[in-house]
Design goal:
This protein has 238 residues and is α+β, with helices and mostly antiparallel strands. It has two domains: 1-87, 2-Layer Sandwich (Pseudouridine synthase), CATH 3.30.2350; 91-238, Pseudouridine synthase, CATH 3.30.2350.10. It is built from four helices and eleven strands, in the order ββαββαβββββαββα. Strands 1, 2, 3, 4, 5, 6, 7, 8, 9, 10 and 11 form an eleven-stranded mixed beta sheet that branches. The longest helix has 13 residues, at 35-47. The chain is globular.
Amino acid sequence: MQDTPKILFEDNHLLVAVKPAGVLSQSDPTGAPDMLTLLKAYLVEKYNKPGEAYLGLLHRLDRPVRGVMVFAKTSKCASRISEQIRNRTVKKKYRAVVYGDVEQKKGEIRSFLLKDPKTNLVKVFQDKASAPKDAKECFLEYEVLDTGRIAGVPVTLLSIDLHTGRSHQIRAQLSSIGHPIVGDRKYGKGPNRFSGDILLESYYLAIDHPVNRERMEFAIPLSCEEPWNQFHKEKENG
């Protein structure tokens, strides 16, 4: 049985936890472990609740992506945090390892994305004129944190400040500028020399508490697993 995900914060209103890579955000027909089910089971056991515990799913992370997720323990909390997400006051940052040397140390990507529900793939259009009418505008900023190599191939560690949270946005936009994320099977066009999970993690999340309105920030350290750990070693040596 899958272990309970790491809990970063919990009170009467919300629960913040770390989704491991490979775990679904919510259940699907495969029956694979998912965050919603695991955390509901945790609440039932911890508080000795009869029946099923309420837990509201507010956002998702792709199955292979590790990262911080926030869940609502009441319907009022779910409504208030969902409003924050709509108003873009929820702040999210990601780390990604991409193929190639990213020359511009800080940059931004603005483009339009359209998702094909049949293929579950996103197509990137560079400007509004070339995009279909129902394509969504997307914007992210990135900063180079470090460089390294995987199987002899140059890679770059990026911090990504996500301003719009579209499906597959980071993966599709980085691939569109010639720097696909290592391990990305959907959008990767880099050297096929890595067989592990996609090297993308949601490491930072900030929200306003749904009741007292206090700004809350949550962050997780860089993964110690290979090949993430090479960036720890480079920092220790330098």
